[in-house]
Amino acid sequence: MQTCESHGRVHTPICLLIAVTLLFFTGCASTPTHRVPMTGDIMVDGPRMIAEGPPRDKVLWQYRTASAAIRRGQFDAAKPLLDDALAMLGGVYGKDAEARKARGLFNKEARKTFIGEPYERSMAYFYRGVLYWRDGELDNARACFRSAEFEDSDAENKEYAGDWVLPDYLDGLATTKLAGDGTDALKRAKAVAKNVNLPDYNPKANVLFIVEYGPGPQKYGAGQYNEQLRFRTRGSPVLSAQLKTGPINLPVAPCDDLNFQATTRGGRVMDHVLANKAVFKGTTDAVGDVAIISGAVLASGRHHRNSAADEIGLGLIAAGIISKIFSSATTPEADIRTWDNLPQFISFATLKLAPGEHVVTVEFKDAAGAANPNLTKTITVNVPADRDKVVFVSDSSTTPQTQ
Fold first, then answer.
1. Any idea what the Cα angle at residue 211 is, between residues 206 and 215, rounded to 5°?
2. Count of CB atoms within 10 A of residue 299's CB?
3. CB proximity list for 352: less than 8 A, separation 6 or greater
4. What residues are paired with 212 via a beta bridge?
5. CB of 353 within 8 A of CB of 205?
6. Rounded to an integer, what distance in angstroms lies between the CA atom of residue 107 and that of residue 98?
7. What are 325-379's pLDDT values in tens digits?
């Protein structure tokens, strides 16, 4: 059996180079992380993943757990989760070193700390704004709605920048209730509203319903190496809602569509990085194939032992192997971690109700206008005398519920 040493001073460096390269990439391989057992209950799995899961996924699980808590009426549990996530989003903890590493050839984008795509970040601010309003803190609620719009302000296609309806509308409504002028925000909301007539502000309306329904977008990787971030949208069985209490029977049409928000932003800066990674991976893979084949042809020819052709052939094989190693280690995959329990549609209704207890029914309707009785929610609403009442209802909310 022929060994590397038998080829003398030319082949020994080649073998050493291959060995060092393999050792380098072995050292770069990530250490397997401890798998946290999952139960399928987000209110069990979420806190467990936040505490024990990979730190880079903490914000993702805070998002998921907060939205699930809101739908169960556990508003106090949702607030600290969103506060911590938004603190990370706002850069309180400094720049993320892992995000910088993710731009390197040999590290996956998914190793960076998750903060989400713009529509996900906007929804984190939106939910927190709703909770602030629920606590009577309209100034903080308004700041969150403005931040939700800001997260959407840098779309590659400027036609779709800052085009959320509800954050702008609620910004103006909060301003009006704080004795300010919400006209500009109302104009912005009406300018981008599609197929929905937004009512003018009624400062005397003391109950705000936030209504959400339908399944939100999911992410997947496309392209030869899954380097292209794409969004899978799912048709919603619910396209509208109907709110009933006493003599009031009010239709609730969708204001914002998260599928639309996810798919209209255009490219990301990271897309160009991943595209370059994909080119590098493909090129080094092809170069490795050519070098190995060429080297094998030379080395297998009828030459004298230790001939120059043998040396060149084996050198090409070594170079090809190294090139293939670099190709294999290059990770151009897009980050497809998803806030996977977001809705497709969000909307609202405002009412003036007398202080006290009211039973409210919310029906969710399909394209034909038929209500799905399995999704109907019954909510007992206690309207205070001294401030607004905010009621959150989702097609996946628990019912009956008291708010």
1. 170
2. 18
3. 202, 204, 205, 206, 207
4. 346, 394
5. no
6. 9
7. 555 555 557 788 999 999 999 999 999 999 999 999 999 999 999 999 999 999 9
